[in-house]
Write a structure and sequence with these properties.
Length: 92
């Protein structure tokens, strides 16, 4: 993989992870983070430039979807799950 495309991939990965951490819902947040990690690990060995470009375009589309869903998720309040409540007590 060329250096420029490697830096593009890493930058896109960071943006996806950062945006996914903004999900107000614990379930959506953990699903998105896990799915992003798994997808990037699965495609780590792809070296064909056309395949890399296709995967990058798909990832950019996913980033746009995540950004929209985060915005929509912030419009509605949701009850915290038991897992989130425990995490808050452990840090206090």
């Amino acid at each position: 993989m060329a250096t420029s495309s490697r830096s593009q991939v890493l930058s896109l990965y960071r943006m996806l992870m950062k945006e996914s951490k903004k999900f107000p819902s614990y379930n959506y947040r953990t699903y998105a983070l896990r799915r992003i990690r798994d997808a990037f690990r699965e495609n780590r060995t792809v070296s064909d430039p056309k395949a890399v470009e296709t995967l990058l375009n798909r990832a950019w589309d996913s980033l746009a979807v995540i950004q929209r869903q985060v915005s929509i998720g912030k419009l509605y309040t949701a009850q915290k799950t038991v897992v989130e409540d425990r995490g808050a007590k452990a840090t206090d």
